[in-house]
Amino acid sequence: MRIILGYVAAVLAAYLMGCIAISQGNIAAVVGMGFEVTLSQRLESAQHDVLSMTALYLPIISVSFLIALPAAALVIKRYPNLRRLGFVLGGFVALVAIHLIIKQVFGISGIAPTRTIMGLIMQGVAGAFGGYCYYRLTTPKLAGSE
Fold first, then answer.
1. How many Cβ atoms are within 10 Å of 126's Cβ, its own excluded?
2. Half-sphere exposure of 13 (CA within 13 A, CB side)
3. Quick one: what percent of the chain has pLDDT higher than 90?
4. pLDDT tens across 83-118, in order?
5. Using CA atoms, how far apart are residues 107 and 146, in angstroms rounded to an integer?
6. Is 85 in contact with 78 (CB distance < 8 Å)?
7. Which of 65, 88, 117, 135 has the most CB atoms lying inside 10 A of its own CB?
8. How far is CA 3 from CA 48, 59, 67, 127, 131, in A?
Protein backbone atom coordinates (compact mmCIF):
# COMPACT_ATOMS: atom_id res chain seq x y z
CA MET A 1 0.00 0.00 0.00
CA ARG A 2 2.88 2.32 0.81
CA ILE A 3 4.26 1.90 -2.73
CA ILE A 4 0.91 2.75 -4.34
CA LEU A 5 0.43 5.80 -2.12
CA GLY A 6 4.01 6.87 -2.85
CA TYR A 7 3.46 6.46 -6.58
CA VAL A 8 0.24 8.50 -6.60
CA ALA A 9 1.82 11.23 -4.48
CA ALA A 10 4.92 11.31 -6.67
CA VAL A 11 2.88 11.66 -9.86
CA LEU A 12 0.68 14.40 -8.38
CA ALA A 13 3.67 16.29 -6.95
CA ALA A 14 5.56 16.14 -10.26
CA TYR A 15 2.40 17.14 -12.15
CA LEU A 16 1.72 20.16 -9.91
CA MET A 17 5.30 21.40 -10.02
CA GLY A 18 5.59 20.67 -13.74
CA CYS A 19 2.38 22.57 -14.56
CA ILE A 20 3.43 25.55 -12.48
CA ALA A 21 6.84 25.56 -14.19
CA ILE A 22 5.14 25.41 -17.60
CA SER A 23 2.81 28.24 -16.67
CA GLN A 24 5.60 30.46 -15.42
CA GLY A 25 7.79 29.61 -18.41
CA ASN A 26 5.02 30.74 -20.75
CA ILE A 27 4.57 33.91 -18.73
CA ALA A 28 8.31 34.58 -18.90
CA ALA A 29 8.02 34.55 -22.69
CA VAL A 30 5.13 37.04 -22.52
CA VAL A 31 7.12 39.29 -20.18
CA GLY A 32 10.07 38.98 -22.56
CA MET A 33 7.90 40.52 -25.27
CA GLY A 34 7.45 43.61 -23.10
CA PHE A 35 4.06 42.91 -21.52
CA GLU A 36 3.43 43.31 -17.82
CA VAL A 37 2.02 40.36 -15.91
CA THR A 38 0.61 40.79 -12.41
CA LEU A 39 0.91 38.31 -9.57
CA SER A 40 -2.82 37.68 -9.86
CA GLN A 41 -2.44 36.81 -13.54
CA ARG A 42 0.45 34.48 -12.72
CA LEU A 43 -1.64 32.66 -10.13
CA GLU A 44 -4.65 32.45 -12.45
CA SER A 45 -2.46 31.07 -15.21
CA ALA A 46 -0.95 28.45 -12.91
CA GLN A 47 -4.40 27.43 -11.68
CA HIS A 48 -5.70 27.19 -15.23
CA ASP A 49 -2.77 25.04 -16.35
CA VAL A 50 -3.03 22.70 -13.35
CA LEU A 51 -6.74 22.18 -13.96
CA SER A 52 -6.66 21.96 -17.75
CA MET A 53 -3.65 19.71 -18.35
CA THR A 54 -5.02 16.70 -16.44
CA ALA A 55 -6.33 14.98 -19.56
CA LEU A 56 -2.98 14.84 -21.33
CA TYR A 57 0.01 15.73 -19.17
CA LEU A 58 -1.03 13.85 -16.02
CA PRO A 59 -1.34 10.48 -17.82
CA ILE A 60 2.00 11.05 -19.56
CA ILE A 61 3.69 11.72 -16.23
CA SER A 62 1.93 8.67 -14.76
CA VAL A 63 3.34 6.41 -17.46
CA SER A 64 6.82 7.91 -17.22
CA PHE A 65 6.87 7.31 -13.45
CA LEU A 66 5.48 3.81 -13.97
CA ILE A 67 8.67 3.13 -15.94
CA ALA A 68 11.17 5.29 -14.04
CA LEU A 69 10.41 4.35 -10.43
CA PRO A 70 10.71 0.57 -10.90
CA ALA A 71 13.83 1.12 -13.02
CA ALA A 72 15.32 3.23 -10.22
CA ALA A 73 14.32 0.54 -7.70
CA LEU A 74 16.31 -2.04 -9.69
CA VAL A 75 19.42 0.12 -9.51
CA ILE A 76 18.78 0.83 -5.83
CA LYS A 77 18.70 -2.91 -5.08
CA ARG A 78 22.33 -3.02 -6.14
CA TYR A 79 23.23 0.25 -4.37
CA PRO A 80 20.80 0.55 -1.42
CA ASN A 81 22.74 3.40 0.18
CA LEU A 82 21.78 5.57 -2.83
CA ARG A 83 18.02 5.15 -2.36
CA ARG A 84 17.19 8.85 -2.09
CA LEU A 85 19.45 9.87 -4.96
CA GLY A 86 18.16 7.00 -7.09
CA PHE A 87 14.50 7.99 -6.85
CA VAL A 88 15.26 11.71 -7.21
CA LEU A 89 17.32 11.07 -10.36
CA GLY A 90 14.70 8.62 -11.62
CA GLY A 91 12.03 11.31 -11.37
CA PHE A 92 14.30 13.90 -13.00
CA VAL A 93 15.11 11.62 -15.92
CA ALA A 94 11.45 10.58 -16.30
CA LEU A 95 10.19 14.11 -16.92
CA VAL A 96 13.12 15.18 -19.09
CA ALA A 97 12.77 11.98 -21.12
CA ILE A 98 9.09 12.71 -21.80
CA HIS A 99 9.94 15.90 -23.62
CA LEU A 100 13.01 14.59 -25.43
CA ILE A 101 11.16 11.49 -26.65
CA ILE A 102 8.16 13.52 -27.86
CA LYS A 103 10.53 15.85 -29.70
CA GLN A 104 12.37 12.95 -31.37
CA VAL A 105 9.31 10.87 -32.23
CA PHE A 106 6.87 13.57 -33.29
CA GLY A 107 9.25 16.41 -34.13
CA ILE A 108 7.48 18.87 -31.83
CA SER A 109 7.90 20.36 -28.41
CA GLY A 110 4.39 20.07 -27.07
CA ILE A 111 5.22 22.26 -24.09
CA ALA A 112 6.70 25.58 -25.19
CA PRO A 113 8.98 26.23 -22.19
CA THR A 114 10.75 22.91 -22.77
CA ARG A 115 12.20 24.32 -25.98
CA THR A 116 14.76 26.06 -23.76
CA ILE A 117 17.31 24.29 -21.60
CA MET A 118 15.97 26.10 -18.52
CA GLY A 119 12.42 24.96 -19.21
CA LEU A 120 13.60 21.39 -19.72
CA ILE A 121 15.61 21.49 -16.50
CA MET A 122 12.59 22.87 -14.62
CA GLN A 123 10.56 19.89 -15.79
CA GLY A 124 13.37 17.67 -14.54
CA VAL A 125 13.27 19.44 -11.18
CA ALA A 126 9.52 18.79 -11.02
CA GLY A 127 10.21 15.12 -11.68
CA ALA A 128 12.97 15.09 -9.07
CA PHE A 129 10.51 16.51 -6.55
CA GLY A 130 8.10 13.72 -7.41
CA GLY A 131 10.89 11.18 -7.00
CA TYR A 132 11.76 12.66 -3.61
CA CYS A 133 8.13 12.40 -2.52
CA TYR A 134 8.17 8.75 -3.56
CA TYR A 135 11.36 8.18 -1.58
CA ARG A 136 9.93 9.84 1.55
CA LEU A 137 6.65 7.96 1.43
CA THR A 138 8.10 4.52 0.66
CA THR A 139 11.09 4.52 2.99
CA PRO A 140 10.30 2.39 6.05
CA LYS A 141 10.55 4.19 9.36
CA LEU A 142 13.35 2.90 11.56
CA ALA A 143 12.58 1.97 15.16
CA GLY A 144 13.64 4.73 17.51
CA SER A 145 13.67 7.47 14.87
CA GLU A 146 11.32 10.41 15.07
1. 26
2. 24
3. 87
4. 999 999 999 999 999 999 999 999 888 888 888 899
5. 50
6. no
7. 65
8. 30, 18, 14, 17, 12
